[in-house]
Every structure is written in C-alpha cells, then in structure tokens.
Amino acid sequence: MNRIALLAAACCLTSTAAWAHKDHDHDDKKTPPSAADMMKPPAEMEKLKGMIGTWSCTGKSADMGKPTMHAIKSTMKMTSELGGHWVMVDYVEEKTKENPMPFAFKETIGFDRASSKYQRTFIDNMGGTALMTTTGPSADGKIEWTGDATMGGEKTPMKDVITHKSDKETLVEVTMMGPDGKWMPVANMTCKK
After folding, report:
1. pTM value?
2. Burial 58-75 (b: 16+ CB within 10 A, else e)
C-alpha cells in the first residue's frame, strides 16, 4: 500500500474511531459513518453548485487608507475540487489606470460537519488572510459570511454579503470594521457569468 493510501486509510479510521467515542446522547441506533460515507461530500455542498464557473465582475474597491473607492474589473473562477468537498476560488483584478495595484486572492469554501457551518479560508497577494463562516444561504439567496481578516499584522472583523440574484448574476458587498468600531465598505461588485 502506498503512503498516500495508507494515510487516507489512517485518517478514515481515526475519524471513525473519534466519532464512535463521541457522546451521541446515548442513542444506540446511531452508527459511525462508513469510510465510503466519509468520502462523500456533505449534502450542503450541493447548495453551492450555482457558484461554479467563471464570473466577470465590475464594481468599486476601497483605496488603502483613504475614504475613497476606485473602479475595478476582475475575473473570478470557481471550481469544485477534491471530490466535491471544496469550492476553490481564484480571483484576479485587471491592472488599470484607476487600479495600478490589482488585488488577487485564492480561497477554499467547504462545509464543516462538526459546527454545521460553511467555512472559507482566504489568502491574498498582499499577505492578507481571512477565516470566515456562515450557516449558508437564506431563503432570499443571501449568504452572510463573518469572521476575521488579518492584514499587515492587524486583525479585524470582516463581513461579506453575497446575494445570488440568478444563476448568471451575483452581488458582492465586503465590509470591514474600522478602528472606530464602525463598518466601512471594502468592495462592492456585480459578478456575471
């Protein structure tokens, strides 16, 4: 057995063993998930299928350290990866006169079964990171992500509201808490397939 297969088997066995030892309200009817069940992505990932594809975005982004915003154009590619367990995002802005230092980021989106929340892990081309969670889309198509971003060694609360208008159009509003405790806009975009 090669090392990768051995590692995968060990992870499955460890996860199954951990689940079996967890107190499940003493319900004898529950059984630990099989290795085959653990390989299947959570059903909640189905709700994100409409995100998959290449999106063209236009909008505005905050000027660093200023109360003004500049126009942006970007491409966001979203793919289903690793057996459907993750959505991978690759976002790149165009370099323009208004945007001489274009922003870019990569992120993963998945579902954490233990907390029953979606999770995002974000890294960008300026050394920033963010970890965010949500309970998922609401009935009106909005997803509100909350968490913390770290930029330049400073940690700050961050919020993204993504409104899925249709399979072809999504609105994105990113805000961050300023030093005064007030939410300030970071980016507002309309993305279309």
Report:
1. 0.78
2. ebbbbeeeeeebeebbbe
